[in-house]
Amino acid sequence: MDMVLIAGLWLDGSAWDDVSPALEGLGHRPVPLTLPGQGDGSSSATLDDQVAAVVAAVDAAPDRVTVVGHSAACTLAWLAADARPDKVASVVLIGGFPSTPGEAYAAFFPMVDGAMAFPGWETFEGPDAADLDADARARMADGAIPVPEGVATATVTYSDDRRYDVPVTMVCPEYSPAEARAWIDAGDLPELAKAKHVDLVDLDSGHWPMFTRPAELARLLADAATT
Predict the structure, then answer these.
(1) Rounded to whole angstroms, how far apart are CA atoms 48 and 43?
(2) In this predicted model, what pLDDT tens digit does every residue of 132-146 receive, in sequence order?
(3) Which residue intervals define the domain AB hydrolase-1 in the entry (predicted)?
């Protein structure tokens, strides 16, 4: 199965370099995306541009696909399911959740010169980054791509309730499946509360398992694509 891979903020398609070969070995075809404004040299990209890039990758696949979103890009994966509910066979969310309609996509940090830069590792101390050594942190920080303001501050909207029929697997890295279930049951994650098929799986890692647990992550993605 084709698997469209969307990394989170400040990352481009190379974030999946260690995951992709493992997916291929498990019989899947990874399609890692470099989003407009996050690696293609454009600083004026919008959220609509990024959604269009994801949908184009879905449309280009010969058959139905699994769309994988990491962190903030979980919303992009869910927007793809909203745009193509008949073509997206399943969605996998890694360390994140779909935004609620009306929320900003990812306006988490200050905008400077029209973009949201990586805020530094102090922001992510604790479970998020506990498994990243100093070299990995330095490489990620050096390669971090500021997110265009037109992406980060855009309002999220959905249009097709058939997205709730698309099976969802939540990969829980820096938090537990029990915590995620409690958030869903409490109504804190409205989009997932309405989804009809949500599986929760544990992964003992921090927020960026594509760098620290690529083989284990690939196996979870493969399992999600075949169940």
Answers:
(1) 14
(2) 999 999 999 999 999
(3) 4-219
